[in-house]
From TrEMBL:
The chain crosses the membrane at residues 6-28, 49-72, 78-98. Signal peptide: none annotated. The keyword Transmembrane applies. It comes from Hymenobacter aerilatus. Residues 38-181 form the PH domain. This is PH domain-containing protein. InterPro entries: PH_40 (IPR058916). The lineage of its organism: Bacteria, Pseudomonadati, Bacteroidota, Cytophagia, Cytophagales.
């Protein structure tokens, strides 16, 4: 076990150093780039959404290693380890499941949105889905009930078109309140859920 940990530690440190450099470079270059109106799933957006769940998981996983020594632990230690494991997984797993679901849905989606130019376009695999405001039969905007959980930033807007097609735009692309505000004069329905599963 100690051999595994001595091998794992330098690997984790190198991964963390590379991650800090990549995020730092992205942050610095963002000052020199123009504010884009084209939204796709980017590394920086995913890092922003997954930062707290992954941090919670990384901090808690070393403590969960105590389950490997289950036979040598007292009852109190087992109860504490189970409680800690439930808290860590309870805060992290819903975010990871939502992220995977949203990423799978919007992996090949491109959103072009500019409220000032009255422009809203959705592309699936670089093919534009043609619709206008008059084609919107109903618009669902689903947000999280609590603003104090790790998965509160996972929300989605679903555009129901007159053709029967439904386009789902998730927070993996961008923050959705400006889009919901832009669509406020359509048949907008706002719903709140504990978990915004698709």
């Amino acid at each position: 076990m100690s051999r595994f940990l001595t091998f794992l530690r330098p690997l984790l440190e190198a991964t963390f150093a590379i991650l800090v450099m990549v995020v730092g470079l992205r942050f610095i270059t963002s000052f020199f780039s123009q504010n884009s109106k084209v939204y796709q799933p980017t590394f920086l957006r995913q890092f922003y959404l997954l930062f707290w769940p992954l941090l919670c998981l990384c901090v808690g996983l070393p403590f969960l290693m105590s389950f490997f020594y289950l036979g040598t632990l007292s009852v109190v230690e087992v109860v504490l380890a189970v409680a800690l494991g439930a808290v860590i997984l309870g805060f992290s797993v819903p975010s990871l499941v939502l992220h995977a679901q949203y990423y799978a849905r919007n992996f090949s989606t491109t959103l072009v949105f500019d409220a000032k130019q009255n422009r809203l376009e959705v592309y699936e695999q670089r093919v534009r889905i043609p619709f206008s405001r008059t084609d919107l039969v109903r618009v669902e905007y689903v947000t999280c009930v609590s603003r104090h959980v790790f998965w509160n930033k996972y929300e989605y807007v679903r555009l129901h078109l007159a053709s029967g097609e439904a386009l789902t735009i998730t927070s993996i692309l961008t923050d959705l309140p400006p889009l919901a505000e832009f669509l406020r004069n359509t048949h907008l329905e706002q719903r709140r859920q504990w978990f915004c599963f698709l």
